[in-house]
Task: structure prediction
Amino acid sequence: MQHGTKISPPRGRGRPRRVDPDAALDLALAAFWTGGYHGTSLDDLSAATGMNRPSLYATLGDKQQIYLRALARFAHLMEATVGAAMAEATSLRDALARFYGSALDIYQSGDDAARGCFVICTAAVEAPEAPAIREALQATLDLIDRRLAARFAQARDAGELPPGVDVEALGVLAAATLHSLAIRARSGASRAALDALAAASITQLLDPRA
Result:
């Protein structure tokens, strides 16, 4: 996601260079992901995107607007990447393994391999004092819960789980493991340790008696 700003060739003398908004947003997202919302200044965003403040405002908005757009972009990335990985699975166990594995690939995608989840690890800090960020965070959490509950319901209907199982509760528990992985990844936990936690969680979710 951390690719360079794309600038189109000038069409003639005096024409300003045009910045690709998506590329600029990716660069801003990367800055926020590392420094958090409060830890990332407008000067930091200008430096990250290669844009001066007027261009930054004109292209992406003010600081909170840029952050909220970055949250939405990350949520879309997770939905496309992690959701696709789950869809390819042929069993619930495989779906959960792919779900956690693909999420960890993203959480450990930084140069220092310790970024965790952009949403969980940055938005949760700002939520108490920023209603718009709190609403975006809650919407993301609700979406994850629903997606997981739907997958558990699919497994129940296919006979992989008991008929009376509470799929909504399982979805929330599976999401709680994801959030723990996000925080532990940001703290620098090894991939082996994170994979082991995911595997243990999957076993408990599929059969609490195991």
The chain has nine helices and no strands.
